From TrEMBL:
GO BP annotation list: signal transduction
A Gene Ontology molecular function term of the record: GTPase activator activity
Keyword annotations: Cytoplasm, GTPase activation, Membrane
Stretches assigned to the PH domain: 10-121
Subcellular location: Cytoplasm; Membrane
Keyword Membrane found: yes
Domain of life: Eukaryota
Portion of the parent chain present: 113 to 238 of 520
Annotated protein name in UniProt: Rho GTPase-activating protein 15
Organism field: Aldrovandia affinis
Length: 126
């Protein structure tokens, strides 16, 4: 089973809670709704779990799947104008999905920005 989210791909950055808002789906703008999400970075995708326990259950419990974000062809950038919050980064996928990730702790969000950017760049080199 090649594409089962969270099952087969090496983890680059282990789970941590970040604030997440999906602001567009397939290019269509969505109403912003910030939620705290358990985020895991794998070599080719970002996974959003509702809670940390859900990561442990994935693979054990059918249907217990995270939301996955394909990083191939994606863009990541800091944004100051999509939110009044500080330390906000934006990920735009090749399919036109847009996500904001935020944490009040700057070193925390910097670490995620750097790791996601490295991943996007390495996938780009193909
Ligand atoms: O970009 P917006 O629409 O000002 O984002 C705010 C809204 O999502 C708001 O929810 P309501 O539209 O239900 O009021 C949130 O409570 C705010 O947090 C959003 O603004 P920030 O600046 O926090 O991203």
């Amino acid at each position: 089973p090649g594409d089962v989210a969270g099952a087969d791909h090496p983890i680059v950055l282990k789970g941590e809670y970040l604030n997440k808002a999906k602001i567009a789906d397939g290019g269509k703008k969505l109403r912003k709704n910030w939620t705290s999400t358990w985020v895991v970075l794998e070599v080719n995708q970002l996974l959003f779990y509702k809670e940390s326990k859900q990561e442990a259950l994935t693979g054990l419990k059918p249907g217990c799947k995270p939301e996955s974000v394909d990083l191939c062809g994606a863009h990541i950038e800091w944004t100051a104008d999509k939110s009044s919050r500080k330390n906000v980064l934006q990920i735009t996928t090749s399919s036109g999905n847009e996500f904001l990730l935020q944490d009040d702790n700057y070193p925390t969000i910097c670490k995620w920005h750097g790791a996601i950017k490295n991943t996007v760049d390495s996938l780009g080199k193909g």
